[in-house]
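Ticket #4471: structure export looks truncated?
Reporter: QA, pipeline team
Priority: medium

Steps to reproduce: submit the single chain below to the structure queue and open the exported record.
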Amino acid sequence: MASLRLHFLLVLLPAILLLSHPVKSDDKEDNLLQGINSYRASLNLAALTKNDNADCLADEVADQLKSQPCSNTTGSFTVPGTESPFPNYPDLLAHCHLNITDTKDGVIMPVCVPNLDRTLVLSNFTQSQYNEYINNTKYTGVGIGSEDDWIVVVLSTNKPGGSFTRATSAALLPKAGLTFHLISLFLGFFLVLLS
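Actual output as written to the record:
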């Protein structure tokens, strides 16, 4: 009986490890979030909370920008924003399983700073045209992505039009992941029946 339980744990442990998603930690992004929240605290505003779906979109936008040279003409755009500089913007949303109606009240703010100097990056958000968004209590969530000299902040709201909620609950699991989950569940059920 103990041998069967050990076997069950040996099968279950890899399944648990494979199901858990590693948390992406990027010092530049974490430092920027900390700096923005410190800035907001100095204005007696609530801290922005991490929004994983906005984070995904920020990563996608940063990836699109990485091959572009730095320029002072880069500005924010609302989501979906008719002025979006990406012809494949709907594809970026789809990659993150986002519905355009749940992102329309958000804002995307790209910044290019050579070597992503920490002080310059923060000042580009707090002492520029972006501070009107950073200072706005309407925004409660944040996603941050970076590539090369580009860093992108995506602000979300706690209202349906800007919550960055995934398009469907089925989109939470990739198809291969769903198959793995079902196989693991079946295997676990089978092993319990054997005991």
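Status: closed, not a bug. The export was complete when the record was re-opened. Leaving a note from the reviewer for reference: Residues 24-169 form a domain with the Pathogenesis-related Protein p14a fold (CATH 3.40.33.10).
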